[in-house]
Each structure stands twice: as structure tokens, then as C-alpha cells.
């Protein structure tokens, strides 16, 4: 996840979201896993959750995370109550909820609770734990089904994840990954669910040789088919990077090879995971990618709006940059053609690795984003 997404768990998509516990971590709860101490070297884009950061950022990190964008807004928004989706599922376990429950007297708590903790966010499965992944996925999907709400899940275990950058890790090889995906899919149940399939796996594929890239894309196409076969109501979205990364034509070419144009494996694309690009830019980017991709008109896009309320930071900053704000609340009703949802894939307040260890909830940063 070098620089494409942000830092959810690793480099390419450090999205800093809720992450499912791995083997040997106890019950089937879902919460982010973090390292014990902050990185001394800023990691590239990655989902912030569980992978172990690498010693140094990958060469392409700056392209993925550091694409230039508008300057921060000069006028700070006043705190206000944010609408909460009645259709998306809020998992009851996360680091932000832990902090909110443990700090009722903190003056920042009401704002963080209202504007971040109460919003439904994605649950990441960023550790390679084939023995428990089925039960952990099932605990999330069953929770959503019990409430009649839609959970958002992020499988993040592709081999060579983040091109060996801060979010390196994943399955040992594609054969093991295919078997892990089978077990992931077995926990999806029969209710509606959204799957954000492997952030940065397509947009960051330039680090692979042509042969290894083709093998990865074949495995991703298979993953989409397996997920949709296991649960026909699952909606699977593929990695389209973001508006400051690859051109729509290049991204669409790779997406096509990865199965994103086929309804047997895909419902469309996702963008801006753990990044900061403005919603209008992402809408235009996704429509351009979809147009270049081809495929049926039913294919749509979802956008991570968790931290894009002030647009992309200046000078290509990507690691916990100042001046950012939470973006549009998660919703499945965008009012925009071919834009299926605005989602919070990375949880605001979970560090990219500069204000704390990747995935660590940092209340000072959360408050800065939310107020």
C-alpha cells in the first residue's frame, strides 16, 4: 500500500479501520491490530490495521499517497451532529469505541463520539490467519444481518502486499491466498455485504513483473467469483486507486485483467482508500475509469470519504497530515449516477504511522479531524 490508499494496516491502504483479530488473539472480535511503537520513517499509504510495517517506504509510495491536492480550507467547520446511516452496519468493537467508553470525562469525547465513533466503518481482515478467518468474518456478517444492516469488509492478505513497504505481509503465496479467500468467503452468510477487495492490489501492481502481475490479477478475479458464489448478495469492488494516481485508461486496463469488468466477480470499483482526495475529484475519476473499463452499466463505484473533507493536502503529504477533516458521512444513497456509496474504509483518528504506530487510535488527531 505504498502510497495509493493510505495506511489501514500497511502501506498501500493504511486506512486505519477496524480490523479483525487474528489467530491466538481471543474471541471473534474485530478491532485494529497495531505495532508496539511508532515508525521512525513515515510509511507509505496503507490501510491502518494489522500488517507489520516494513523498514522503509517503497519507491512508489510518494505517487500513491503523496499526490498533490488543494490546500487546506482556511475556515474550520463548526462541530455539528453528523447523520448516521440506517443501512450500514456499525461493528461494536473498535479502538475509537474503546477510547470513547474509557474516557467519558475527556472534553474531546463528545465530538469524537458523535462525528467518528457513531459512524459505521469497514472491518479489515489484514492478517493471514486461515484457521480463524471464517469465524471472524461470520461474527461481523451475522451482526449486520441481526440488525438488518450492511457490513463493509476488507480482505487484505494478497501476497507481496504494499510491494514490501510499510504494509508488507499477507499470505505466503497465491495458492495460500486462494485458500484463505475460500475461508473468508465461507463466513459471508447470505445477507447483503460489501467487500472492498484488497486495497492497492491493482493500482500498485506496477512493482510486480509482468508474469507475477498476471498471476495476481488471475487470483483477484478468482477471489471475486468465489465471494459472489458463496454469497450472491455480496457486492465486490476492485481497487481503482485514486484521482491523483494512475490514469483512468491504465487503471482500467489492469482492472479488466483482474476481473473487475465481469459481473461474475465484480460490482465495480473503489477509490481513495485511506487517502484525502475530494469527493468531486473521485466521482470524476471513477466515472472515467468505469467508462474505460467497459462492462455492463450496472457496475458502479464506492469512495472512501472518511478523511477527505478538506481535500488532498499540499505538497503530497499523506502521513497524518494536518488540516484534514472528516468527509461525507457513510451512506448507500449518494444521489450520483454510478456512485453506489460513500464509505468510511479508514477510520478517522487511526494513525498512518506519524502521530502514532500504524492503526493506533490517536484522540488528538481524531479531534482535529472531527471538530
- Report the mean per-residue pLDDT as an integer: 83
Oligomer: single chain
Fraction in beta strands: 5-15%
Main beta-sheet annotation: 8 strands, parallel
The total count of strands amounts to 10
> Helical content, roughly?
25-40%
Rg calc: 18 Å
Put simply, the count of helices is 9
User: Unreliable stretches, pLDDT < 50, 5 or more residues?
Assistant: 1-17, 21-63, 65-79
Please trace the helix and strand order, writing H or E for each element: EEEHHHEHEHEHEHEHEEH
Given helix and strand content, the structural type is alpha/beta
Q: CA-to-CA gap between the ends?
A: 28 Å
Strand order in space, largest sheet: 3-4-5-6-7-8-9-10
In one word, what is the shape? Answer: globular
Descriptive report:
The structure is a single chain. Helix content is 28%, strand content 10%. The strands form two sheets. An eight-stranded parallel β-sheet has the order 3-4-5-6-7-8-9-10, covered by helices on one side. Strands 1-2 form a two-stranded parallel ribbon. The longest helix has 21 residues, at 210-230. It is α/β, with parallel strands linked by helices. α5 links the parallel β5 and β6 (193-196). The chain is globular and about 55 Å long. The chain is built from nine helices and ten strands. α3 packs across α9.
